[in-house]
Amino acid sequence: MQIKRTILFIVVLVILSAGFIGINKNQSISKRVPFIVPKGWPQPVYDFSKNPLSEEGIALGKQLFYDTQLSKDGTISCGSCHQQFGAFNSYDHPLSHGLENALTTRNAPALFNLAWQKEFMWDGGINHLDLQPLAPITAHNEMGEDIANVLAKLKKIKQYPKLFKAAFGDETINTQRLGKALSQFLLTMVSSNSKYDQVMRGEDSFLLPEKLGHAIFKTKCAQCHAEPLFTDYSYRNIGIPLEPYLNDIGRMTITNDASDSLKFKVPSLRNVVVSFPYGHDGRFFSLMNVFEHYRNHMQIGPTTDAVLKNKLPLSNYEIGQLRAFLQTLTDSVFLKDPRFAEPGMGVHSNPPLDQHN
Amino acid sequence: MLMGLFNTLFSQTTVQFKMMFNNQDFHKDSSYINSAGEMVQIHRFMFYTNKWKVINASNDTINLSNDHFLINADKEQSMVMPFPQLANAKKILFDIGVDSIRNTSGIQTGILDPALGMFWTWRTGYIMAKMHGISSQAKTAGNRFSYEVGGFQSPYNSVRTIVLEVPINQEKNKSITIKTNLANWFSGKHFIQIGTTPNCHNAGKLAMQLADNYATLFSIHSNK
Predict the structure, then answer these.
(1) Residues of A near B (CB-CB distance < 8 A)?
(2) Of A53, A57, A60, whose CA–CA distance to A33 is shortest?
């Protein structure tokens, strides 16, 4: 009888502890985060089924985004050239800086709404968001590091094996997980709360110049800077003459097709006022420079975009209204969202002065 | 003896690559002369391969593997293919390069991990094959030449399918050796002179010519 009771007790104990183990297992599974598509926007192109967002994955991605160990000499992180107050572009830098005083050959683009973007870089040479960070990490004039070496360093930093386990289920650190974690953080950087968005949602209304500017925008700019993302992600030559020192032929570098010469990806105009300088090599410091380019300085060549063969006539009046409209594309919620700020640094409450616009 | 019996019973045959430079055995850093008369020393030679199949005597196509392999002239074990059975093989087929789906679906793992260095980070795509070395004819720093061949999209797709006839008098229980003649890298179909084109680091016309050349590296000779 005594033995039977003991056996029963043990059996019950085993069942109970098995239950506890089960519960603990469930707790270690990362917490899924839904990706919310703003109302009226198209479906994202990123395949979330291959990399479902989780709190732990996003946190790891943020940690990596701001970790200077991703660079060869430990001085540069992704966040060095992608600063939140400039919608994650490089403040006032025509060309962003790399390690050991190196200059890159292109302007660091602002980062947001990447879930809708199919190809990356000004020339569209990279075909998947997960792969994109490998370009700056390995470029000799950016972070100058070797992928295998980055992985070796991360494995040695105490926190990372734990963070990778929390995000992906075990402590394996490989290139794929590095890319996926960074993507998870980057994908959460959705900018959809500008005054323009509030007006579109019926929560606010345009002032008269903004409204007039919107109408002008729709006839003169929206063909390429299509709403609601303010780009159609195409590659176009807008008559920017070849820079003789950089010799950047844009899309043709990737396709080897002469008809793609001097074509660059159409950038989104969301947050445009805070993301100066403009153009693939940052040659335009202000919006006024850009308007002057379009109406006066364009160099028409064989690959210049068909809609710009006669340049883009803009009156002073139109430029004034367009400027008012473009101001409404600034998403101050996004620019100050603590979810995207550097860990331990907080949001820069006073971004540097805009000397140009 | 036992091994021979085992092989006969199960037609256990492996395939292996043997690096050559024309009729000489290839040794890393030894000097050879290419068909342009240029001195060639090769430090590194690597390529991806996949889609291994055989066509047998009854003309059935048999899939050998869905995996990718990275052949490295520096690593003896990478040159032995792990296939179990090649009974009555009439032809062997394989691709040099990486399947296009692996070039368009984000970051891969294992042998296709970009950390292995056979990948372009500045423009997406695998380096299908690479050859690095020196030549006194290379007008470059350190006389180095560097060929990294890639591109997976038309019209500059550098993947090549290789079809090799297995000699009829092939000894069934011996492994099949694929002679890999590195001299053809420079002259298999197009004439590539190190003196004029010492580097290839992008998809395009030169990469296509080199790909046409690497499609001619391989041959099987009777193992009798």
Answers:
(1) 50-51, 121, 123, 125-131, 134-135, 137-139, 146-148, 151, 174-176, 178-180, 253-254, 256
(2) A53
